[in-house]
Write a structure and sequence with these properties.
CATH superfamily: Hypothetical protein, domain 2
CATH architecture: Orthogonal Bundle
Shape: globular
Number of strands: 0
Number of helices: 10
Number of domains: 1
Largest sheet: none
Helix content: 40-55%
Strand content: under 5%
Length: 211
């Protein structure tokens, strides 16, 4: 793809995957790769990345507002209390992905999420341990250079599974790391490849889960 074809709104050069739909463009420009430390948002992405399994991110992105409505604004405490009646309601909701296993995973993950919060003080304090020194300026020049998984996502996936989380395989975990800014995979020509540091760009605690 030529550089001229990579320029989107405003003439800025962007990662080519973001140019196919306005929703992708906005997500790319505003959220993807920005370090996120708010627990509610971290949980939201945990649910959405799990929902994406077997689907395109655009499919999930277009249903995001429906998910926020259906899942009580991604409040993990409320979701952890969902009963069979609520599950039946979700399975009948055409605005979301009506997959029983993924709905069950969201509920189970809410419980696991709350347990992590209780142990570490916040989910942020726990999950950012897998980012090492935090996000660095991207060195990827093409989409082919972006990995599907890394040794960091392998460790994160194994640790999350050990704590009872579902739909957190290494590939999903790496997509999660990209989404919440634990890694920066904007391509080098993209205007977001080395975002100016601000309060949201401060990496969280370091280390890895040894359990």
């Amino acid at each position: 793809m030529k550089r001229t074809e990579q320029a989107g709104q405003g003439g800025l050069k962007r990662c080519e995957w973001a140019l196919g739909d306005p929703a992708l463009l906005e997500y790319h420009d505003v959220e993807w790769g920005v370090p996120e430390h708010d627990d509610r948002k971290l949980f939201e992405f945990l649910v959405l990345e799990g929902v994406q399994a077997g689907l395109s991110w655009l499919t999930v992105l277009k249903k995001r507002e429906n998910y926020r409505r259906a899942f009580d604004g991604f409040d993990p405490e409320r979701i952890s209390r969902y009963d069979s009646r609520k599950v039946r309601s979700l399975l009948a909701d055409v605005g979301i992905i009506r997959n029983r296993a993924k709905i069950a995973a969201a509920i189970g993950n809410a419980n696991a999420f709350l347990a992590v919060q209780k142990e570490f003080g916040s989910f942020d304090a726990y999950i950012w341990r897998f980012a090492g020194d935090g996000p660095k300026p991207s060195r990827r020049r093409t989409l082919r250079q972006i990995p599907a998984r890394t040794k960091e996502s392998d460790r994160m996936s194994e640790a999350l599974k050990g704590r009872g989380f579902k739909f957190v395989g290494s590939t999903i975990s790496y997509a999660y790391m990209q989404a919440v800014g634990m890694v920066n995979d904007h391509l080098t020509y993209c205007f977001r490849s080395n975002p100016r540091a601000d309060n949201r760009d401060r990496p969280g605690p370091r280390g890895v889960d040894r359990r």
